[in-house]
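From the methods appendix. Each design record in this collection lists the tokenized structure first, followed by the designed amino acid sequence. Records were kept in a plain field format so they could be parsed without special tools. The example shown here is representative of the layout used throughout.

RECORD:
FOLD TOKENS (515 positions):
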């Protein structure tokens, strides 16, 4: 590490002198390092074998975990997607931005084009920057013409290359967008998208169940694409519509192509996998791999994709010069709106591992996720129980590449990520559908929140209760014993620390929009 930092400092000086125009030589002493963030969607703490899964095997994720630092207290910033991604890319807590909620496919861009972002920071340090996969941070200014240049979007907040889906796999528009243009768009078959009303004559999951190969359970009864009904309405773009079963391969090939195209310069690649979010649509070659139905099969598919991506880095001689970070945007859910056997075939598998709750929850499983750093030859294998959050990647990676830029909520924890220190965060605010909770040391405080204790549609405990909850994670990882009444001093101390960051909260209710 010391060796690397010295080199990094020399490089930034060199960069200033030469404007960093010269291509980098990725030899043994090659510098600066590439950074690849592999970001799964709804992958739970217990979903991978490196974190204790016994019914699913994820050899490629395990390889990263075994050869790098496997964090046992690694957190996403939120228990849902858009807010977590917002925090990852901006280094700011999502609860500071009221609009950082699960976004529709027509939502405007959540990140201001004026704002500093992770990719902008990399760009300033002479990196090429790319995103492949799920975006879900809004596009345009609220009235997008899907047949023209779609902006602002990832390209305007720092990514020089972007091959994305706009929102989620279950939301329209169901098309790929490459650098602001719908891939395979056709002026004679223009695309229109609405989240308010259907377009005359267009089939929906509600009215045309005979068209469906996967039935909806709750929500997801609007436009039918590829035999799956989605959230939202869409017309046109027949040639541009994705085939869900090919999505994993499509994104993988784009990510590999990106690496090949930029292997001779430092690059930052954000590879945002769509699995295992709904609708779960494994390519036929993975169907039946786990006996758990599509959810298990797409986890194995995602693991394979990760293996292929690593193989590309390896065959290009880049592995020794690339920091790989793997994590998930939020915790797991089984039934998230389709009948896909996720709950009926889960068997002995525990997607949340030993944790309580899941996606949407303030309990640990909402935000405590797989979190691995891997860098061949630079990071020694270790298991770390330091508390780290994805919001910290901004300042930590900035430090890695010799940038002075920091963001207020984002702690510089580079040494922790490198496995050289165990001094992680002392305090962390976690967020779930607008509600917040607080971790400090081994303690968790969940303030009173209105709303249902359990979201029955998804069968997940949300963490809502009319009174304070206080748990000691060292003794009670599964958050079963509320110590708020028996530990009044600790409770008071936790409330004071929480309110010092968050301000007074008033029993916020969740707005789950699950219907
Ligand atoms: C919810 C969807 C859910 C999923 C989630 C976003 C319904 C009923 N449920 O509103 O299926 O799409 O939004 O997931 O529509 S996330 O991982 O992108 O946050
Ligand atoms: Ca997600």
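DESIGN:
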């Amino acid at each position: 590490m010391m060796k690397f930092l010295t080199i990094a400092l020399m490089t930034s000086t060199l960069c200033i002198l030469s404007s960093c125009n010269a291509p980098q030589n990725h030899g043994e002493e090659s510098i600066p390092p590439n950074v690849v963030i592999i970001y799964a969607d709804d992958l739970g703490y217990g979903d991978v074998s490196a974190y204790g899964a016994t019914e699913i095997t994820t050899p490629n994720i395990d390889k990263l975990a075994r050869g790098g630092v496997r964090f046992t207290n690694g957190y996403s910033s939120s228990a849902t997607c858009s807010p977590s991604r917002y925090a990852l890319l901006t280094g700011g807590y999502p609860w500071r931005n009221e609009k950082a909620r699960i976004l529709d496919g027509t939502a405007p861009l959540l990140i201001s084009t004026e704002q500093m972002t992770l990719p902008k920071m990399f760009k300033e340090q002479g990196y090429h920057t790319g995103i492949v996969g799920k975006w879900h941070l809004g596009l345009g200014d609220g009235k997008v013409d899907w047949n023209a240049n779609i902006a602002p979007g990832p390209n305007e907040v720092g990514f020089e290359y972007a091959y994305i889906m706009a929102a989620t796999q279950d939301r329209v528009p169901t098309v790929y967008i490459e650098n602001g243009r719908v891939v395979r768009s056709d002026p004679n078959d223009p695309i229109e998208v609405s989240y308010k009303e259907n377009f005359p004559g267009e089939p929906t999951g509600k009215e045309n169940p005979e068209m469906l190969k996967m039935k909806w359970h709750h929500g997801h009864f609007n436009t039918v694409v590829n035999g799956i009904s989605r959230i939202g309405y869409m017309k046109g773009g027949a040639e541009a519509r994705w085939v869900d079963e090919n999505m994993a391969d499509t994104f993988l090939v784009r990510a590999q192509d990106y690496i090949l195209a930029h292997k001779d310069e430092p690059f930052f690649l954000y590879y945002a996998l769509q699995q295992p979010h709904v609708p779960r649509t494994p390519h036929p070659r993975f169907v039946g791999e786990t006996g758990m139905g599509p959810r298990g099969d797409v986890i194995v598919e995602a693991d394979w994709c990760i293996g292929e991506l690593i193989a590309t880095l390896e065959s290009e001689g880049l592995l020794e010069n690339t920091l790989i970070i793997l994590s998930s945007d939020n915790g797991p859910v089984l039934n998230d709106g389709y009948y896909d056997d996720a709950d009926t075939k889960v068997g002995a598998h525990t997607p949340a591992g030993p944790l309580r709750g899941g996606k949407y929850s303030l309990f640990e499983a909402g935000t405590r996720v797989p979190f691995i750093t891997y860098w061949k030859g630079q990071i020694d294998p270790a298991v770390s129980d330091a508390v780290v959050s994805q919001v910290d990647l901004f300042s930590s990676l900035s430090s890695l590449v010799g940038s002075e830029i920091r963001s207020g909520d984002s702690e510089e924890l580079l040494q922790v990520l490198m496995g050289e220190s165990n001094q992680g965060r002392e305090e962390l605010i976690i967020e779930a559908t607008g509600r917040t909770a607080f971790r400090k040391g081994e303690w968790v405080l969940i303030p009173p929140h209105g709303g249902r204790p359990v979201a029955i549609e998804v069968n997940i405990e949300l963490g809502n209760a009319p009174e304070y909850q206080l748990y000691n994670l060292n003794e009670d990882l599964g958050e079963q014993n509320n110590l708020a009444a028996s530990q009044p001093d600790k409770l008071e101390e936790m409330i004071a620390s929480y309110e010092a960051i968050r301000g007074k909260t008033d029993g916020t209710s969740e707005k789950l929009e699950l219907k």
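APPENDIX NOTE: The radius of gyration is 22 Å.
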